[in-house]
Amino acid sequence: MSAGLNLVLVGSAALFAIGAFATVARRSAVVALLGTQFMLVAGGIAFVAFARFGLGAANATAGASMALFAGAIAVAELVLASGRCDAHIIELPA
Amino acid sequence: MLLIGALPEPITSAPLVVFIYLLLILMVAGALASVLLRSTLYAIGAFSATMALVGLLYLTIAPFLLFALQLLVFTTISAALLIALLRETAGLRASSVGPFSREWIIGAAVSAVLLAVVAVVVGATSWPVHVCCALPESFGGTLRDTYTVGLAVVIVGLAASALGSGLLLAAPILPSSRGGGSPTDRRRDRPRGAPR
Hints:
The complex is a heterodimer. Chain A has helices at residues 5-25, 29-53, 60-91. Chain A is mainly alpha-helical. In chain A, helix 1 runs antiparallel to helix 2 (29-53) and helix 2 (29-53) runs antiparallel to helix 3 (60-91). In chain A, 56% of the residues are buried. By secondary structure, chain B is an all-alpha fold. In chain B, helix 1 (14-36) packs antiparallel against helix 2 (40-61) and helix 2 runs antiparallel to helix 3. Chains A and B meet through helix 1, helix 2 and helix 3 of A and helix 1, helix 2, helix 3, helix 6 and helix 7 of B.
């Protein structure tokens, strides 16, 4: 038994699929936000997996850097979306 | 430059492989739970658990700094933001259990014991930390030397989004043309837990 590129990529793809489902199919704004987070994190995991097990191992820290950027973008997107959601919901008539 | 025939070997250490399988299964289960749960608060809890599991996955296959950032920064900020959003919009009810009640003390004791066990295992065996920290190059050095512009862009983007969000939340809200009255008054007058 071993854990290699395929295994981590399968996990990453599953996470991306769940995120896409949440973004497209769920009506709750918070769950849709969670879905976008999952998709970004899945991309980061794929970068890290290729850096650890694939051709990216020639420069192993590059994949981790990309995952770091993806995480930061996810947090920034969450900050903006939560602020926008809050303002929008407060503005709705009672 | 590595060729296709010289790809790095997959992980074959049995405990680490089992650990990675377990992490991936729990990660997918946590993501599914956060999407399918009806209670938003539980969904946010499952989301935070999933992010923490992603951090643990990074611990096994990525540099330690990425694990630390994922666990301490991204997970914490995401959970705090979502809970703040929930408080502002749907409202959170105060817990009926006091902070020093029996349940909290037992939970804290169990958590402390589990953390102590993990610390003892990591300290005694250096597993799985030694796997992730065997990379030849420094992650921080790569970020500083190769991705200076990207890092600066990310920092500026984070700061700008935080500033914009803070201004958005702090700014007074003008009365909406769709409904009468000040939204602030509406929020203050609304009974706790009542639907909007």
